[in-house]
Amino acid sequence: MKVSILKKNDFEKMKDLFLDVFTNEPWFDKWNNEEQLHAYLTELTENNNSLTLALYSEEGELIGCALGYIFNWWEGREYFIREFFISRKRQNQGLGSSFLQLMNEILNEKEIKHITLTTEKNVPAYGFYHKNGFSDLKDSVNLVKKV
């Protein structure tokens, strides 16, 4: 396996993979609007501070992605992962954990000190992240307000 910046010509493959993962269990996201989906993924991958990492199989098949952005904080640079996903047919084989480990080389080159992300507590991803060294921030909470 190899981790690199997502190749520009793999954007559509990434979009298909994203849809397959997140419109199925346990997420069941309703991405019915193609323009909204395209805008969302473009905003995540094409901003000045975006960092889109891809996991490729030995055969060069795109099998996972981490979509996020880098920002500077008083403790140093951080990578905020907005979306992290592995192909459904390749899940539960240790590839997500391997992906996180392999990402470290790129993150170290970019002098990133922390990875932050959010997920729901009632999905398997929560346990996965804990198993891979993430912890809940004791004094932080996510807030949302409907407009």
From TrEMBL:
Domain of life: Bacteria
Pfam families, alphabetized: Acetyltransf_1 (PF00583)
Ranges of residues in domain N-acetyltransferase: 1-147
SUPFAM superfamilies: Acyl-CoA N-acyltransferases (Nat)
The name this protein goes by in its record: GNAT family N-acetyltransferase
InterPro entries assigned to the protein according to its UniProt record, in alphabetical order: Acyl_CoA_acyltransferase, GNAT_dom
